[in-house]
């Protein structure tokens, strides 16, 4: 079971999320918080797998709460669920450690799949959030991949990873084995100096490494 904590200051939103998620056979709602401070406290006490985090809340906002949660409990996945899609919210949320960023108009089934993606170690971003990341692209004089250039195949794997694909899906798209994909991912993590798939995807988008090599 995926243990989910809901953090949102609006009662109606919390009720709606709980109503839907309770219909998911692989998910268990372990608690709900009305502000960021309470969310941090409940994560420490309840140890959820995923936190659905609102951005604007009293006492402590979602970005501050996410940062504290990731500092204390790095294994906890945070999915931002908000109404804001501008860069002033998207970029700080992802930099704080959120592995996903979705808007509240997301279809229920897509939300459930986003939660499952986080549990698989994948990232999940609303198209508007991806657009904001694209705008963040800027040249880097000496980035990790300049020191240790990615091979054409690593570039292909990174491009597929950035699309949110699983190892199995990447292997199928590139006609290689899952073991080979895991090896390439491990190598590109080392070259880009990142620790997980979300960081790799964010790095790729920011530095223009999202296009497949075609080789």
From TrEMBL:
Residue ranges of domain Response regulatory in the record: 3-119
UniProt-listed Gene3D superfamilies: 3.40.50.2300
Organism domain of life: Bacteria
Bias (Basic and acidic residues) ranges: 133-153
Region ranges (Disordered): 129-153
Chain positions with 4-aspartylphosphate modification: 54
Record's keyword terms, sorted: DNA-binding, Phosphoprotein, Transcription, Transcription regulation
Biological processes, Gene Ontology terms: phosphorelay signal transduction system; regulation of DNA-templated transcription
Record-level Gene Ontology MF annotations: DNA binding
Pfam families xref list: GerE, Response_reg
GO terms under cellular component: cytoplasm
Main location: cytoplasm
Localization per Swiss-Prot or TrEMBL: Cytoplasm
Domain called HTH luxR-type: residue spans: 143-208
Protein name per Swiss-Prot or TrEMBL: LuxR family two component transcriptional regulator
């Amino acid at each position: 079971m995926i243990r989910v904590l809901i953090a949102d200051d609006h009662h109606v939103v919390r009720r709606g999320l709980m109503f839907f998620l309770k219909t998911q056979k692989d998910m268990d709602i372990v608690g709900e918080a009305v502000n960021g401070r309470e969310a941090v406290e409940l994560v420490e006490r309840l140890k959820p797998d995923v936190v659905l985090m609102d951005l604007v809340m009293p006492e402590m906002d979602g970005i501050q709460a996410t940062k504290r949660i990731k500092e204390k409990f790095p294994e906890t996945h945070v999915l931002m669920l908000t109404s804001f899609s501008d860069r002033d919210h998207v970029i700080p949320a992802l930099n704080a450690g959120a592995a996903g960023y979705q808007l509240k108009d997301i279809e229920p089934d897509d939300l459930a799949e986003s939660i499952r993606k986080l549990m698989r170690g994948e990232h999940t971003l609303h198209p508007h959030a991806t657009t904001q990341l694209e705008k963040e692209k800027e040249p880097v004089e000496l980035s990790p991949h300049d020191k240790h250039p990615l091979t054409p195949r690593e570039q292909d794997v990174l491009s597929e990873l950035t699309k949110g694909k699983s190892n199995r899906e990447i292997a199928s798209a590139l006609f290689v084995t899952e073991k080979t994909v895991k090896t390439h991912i491990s190598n590109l993590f080392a070259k880009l100096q990142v620790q997980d798939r979300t960081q790799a995807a964010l790095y790729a988008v920011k530095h223009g490494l999202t296009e497949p090599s075609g080789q």
